[in-house]
Predict the structure.
Amino acid sequence: MEVMMLLVYDQPGVMQRVMGEFNRKRINVETIVVGKCEQKEKARIVLSIEDKEKCLSVIEHLRALQEVIEAEIVDHSRHEAYALLSSKEGICRVTGTVEQVDAIVSKSEPEKFVQTMNAI
Amino acid sequence: MKGAKAAVELLEEQGVQVMFGIPGGVLLPFYNELRDTKIRHILARHEQCAGHMADGYARVSRKPGVCVATSGPGATNLVTGVATAFMDSSPMVAITGQVATGVLGNDAFQEADSFSLMMPVTKHNFRVTDPAAFPETMRKAFMIATTGRFGPVHVDIPVDILNAEITDQQMAKEVKIPKPKRNLSGLLDAVKLLEKAERPTIMIGGGVTWSRAGSEIMRLAEMLMAPVVTTLMGKGSVPEDHPLVLGVCGMHGRQVANYALNNCDVLLAIGTRFSDRVTGKLSEFGSKTKVVHVDIDSSEIGKNVKGRVGLVGDAWTVVNALIAGLQMRKKSATWKDRIMELRKQCTCNYDLRSDPIKPQKVVYEMSKVLPQDAIVTTEVGQNQMWALHFYKCTGKRIFITSGGMGTMGFGFPAAIGAKVAKPECVVADIAGDGSLQMVSHEFATAVGNDIPVIVCLLNNGWLGMVKQWQKLFWDERYMATKFSGSPDFVKLAEAYGAEAIRVEKHSEVAEALGRAQRSKVPFLIDFVVDPEEDVLPMTPPGKTSKDWIKGRCQWKGEVC
């Protein structure tokens, strides 16, 4: 799995424009994290995509967007994961490396869960 | 001041002299202010054509073309015009009205989500929701359209923004956008490759036309003794009577150009995106060739042709850098001499004296009799390919066509826009009867605004290019390509107040063109041409030049 990190202007329509580039290139985005960041009026988007080739095919197009300030492919050593699990016992929050979170999620067999990748 | 007044002042500030559009309910405040300006407004009959007119204007004047449409259907109609400009990197500012912000998203009358509709077919687009940000948005729109790789920018303006109060302070706000990044780190590699090249060829595309790097390219070509081939979009950027210029390459290109493209050892590709119409089967293209790819848009490097030396920058700058770096080249004329020899076999100046008129004859005569500063536009299909192959862009001639999008109906409105930009030049549209019927209502615009363009209609009664493919690749199973019920085009043009004649004999072609050039009103020549004439030679889609269909072509050179 590859992770891309984008610094963008925090405006309506930015997600649509960014996702439009993935759509055009027929790339399925596995996970998305978007949030405010240390810079005012800007936001970070962290996306995961299965294939490195596909990352490379889209990154220059993302950089060409007016609302994208930076776009990079994040080194594997910086990949993180988190998950939110729900079962009879209640809600469980898991954070850690990708392997750790994968292991916990598959072992605990939750009723429902959502898992995503992150990086900084 | 009111938003509408601000809009007009901002357009004036950007040096806009003319705009093409159609008003509507939500644009009333804007059109009310437009009455009091010197900006010329040309009322089109369909928003798509307003877009093409702005596009044609931009391609001649090299300033952003401005087009305006109202909300809802106005905006959806405009999409084709904007998309056409986008595919050919033409600078444009497209303004659409929008329903008031208070009802946006509620399916108000004439509401369409034009912000989303325009997003994938623009370089960038804006929806103004805060009057305070309106002035900077308009300024940004013009800057983005004309910075780096040109392209259309769309601004969606809700009616309440046009009625809102805008302060002087908001008006005074200056804007900046990031400069396009240059990357010439591969320059040394490129110079080395070119110095060692035994059979170099230069391929140039629309980027060279926009960057006006033609004379620098010719200097470089002479230094390298390299033949120059152009793409459809590059046609006209270098003089086609120069011995090193071989003309247009690709599916319907000239065989000597395809030969030089397919047999070079180093290909210097400048301002081109390796369209499938040039490369044919992508996996076979340039498999033995080393490619240096120059483009202003970093996302083009490696998009279609991978693993090559890439230089990111505008054509003019990079070509000058290459010229400066290339002082050491040892000069061998073997390749050049071979190409020059082959070029003689690729003359194809068909002066075909037969009736019914062959379409090539019409284009041949146009090439011969039009002035050296004439502007020729084309529609899309066979007419476009005959123009590409047989019309010679020499002197200051300009060639305008919808290359990327292939929009039928582009040529006529684009010719109107071009004539507005350069009223002193002869402007002629090479049209087909299929294309013209998509936009023939624009005769009203041309007549009503005193824009005397010439329409050279190659009338064969078919959707000719589709018919040709049905003939060649689908066992002549013709479906939906033969027209019935087409109008009498002479009467049609005359009904609008244009002049028109029908020409059915090859001997009358030149005279008709002379008469059209002298006309003070829009002029249509209905050339009744042979419906069985195909555009050949041709490289079938997805194949290589080895599989070419020869037709009338006299090329005896080696198989490309």
Observations:
- The CA atoms of residues 191 and 326 of chain B lie 6 Å apart.
- The longest helix of chain B spans residues 47-61.
- Chain B has a mean pLDDT of 94.
